[in-house]
Amino acid sequence: MPERKKLLLWLIAMILFFLLLLVTIWLVYNYRIHQLDRQLERPTVSFHPNTLLQEKSNTQQTTCI
């Protein structure tokens, strides 16, 4: 009988560990998706390389003049 109780506790522990792992993966996945959504709403400079090139060309023109 104690062996059966030990096996049941081991099974419950494994199920809880698996659920904790699933919740952790789900939270990390949602956090990454949320970060990507925020980047699309307010893009950083890396999304607009043309503006950097225009700024550089303007400064080069002013230094040449």
Task: Write up this protein.
The protein is mostly helical and 65 residues long. The chain has one domain (2-64). 86% of the residues lie in helices and 0% in strands. It is built from 2 helices and no strands. The relative contact order is 0.06. The mean pLDDT is 78.
Helix content: over 70%
Mean pLDDT: 78
Backbone structural class? mainly alpha
Instruction: Measure the end-to-end span.
Output: 93 Å
SS elements, strand count: 0
Secondary-structure map:
Blueprint: H1 2-41, H2 49-64
Task: Please summarize what this structure is.
The chain crosses the membrane at residues 7-29. Keywords: Membrane, Transmembrane, Transmembrane helix. This protein is mainly α.
Give me some keywords for this one.
65 residues; mainly alpha; 2 helices
